[in-house]
Write the structure tokens for this entry.
Amino acid sequence: MRLKTPITHIGIIMDGNRRWAKNRSLPSLEGHRRGYSKMKEASRWCIDKGIKILTVYAFSTENWSRKKTEVNYLMNLFRQALSRDISELDRQGVRLKVIGQRERLAPDIQKLIKAAESKTKNNRKLLFNLAISYGGRPDILQAVKKIISKKTPAQKINENLISKNLWTQGIADPDLIIRTSGEQRLSNFLTWQSVYSELVFIKKHWPDFNQKDLDKIIKDYNKRQRRFGR
């Protein structure tokens, strides 16, 4: 049986900010700033297309190993997103959810996350998952630890139970995952959730990605046949 399914959930690996800046002889931090602006645009595109869930890979667990100046700059961008820019998302009807290892973030960022999630909790146009200090394997690991802590009998542990204990609990798996900048791997992004996602890899760096690119990708997606092993 061949199945065509509408797009409910798009995941984006926003790769290439630093390469974009290098190609223009700009500081790498400027690439991150442009990438952040593009991320805000992407939420509007999804709303316009009736897509209900957007998950963006903003900062991976591996990114902590980058230079301190770069990490600090990115953390300040998150502070801006969660404080100054949250009102814009709220006006658009966007519900914000942060997924990842919150305990590794600075206390003030953790407070901003709670406030932003509370402020937007009743919005329904788009669920915007911001993956910060996120990794697919750590996601699975923390789910297993939660299940063990509840002393769940082994015979009751199944795929559904694991899904319910992931950071994305209650959220549909991504139908489509897009990675920019030419790399063709998922790099620890939604490892459990992506098993049946359609994958698209494009050469453009993330700051150059535009609405026409998304339109083209969705058009290609609509030509694909998703069998889910059937």
In short: The chain has a mean pLDDT of 95. Strands lie at 9-13, 53-60, 94-99, 126-134, 176-179, 198-201. The longest helix spans residues 28-48.
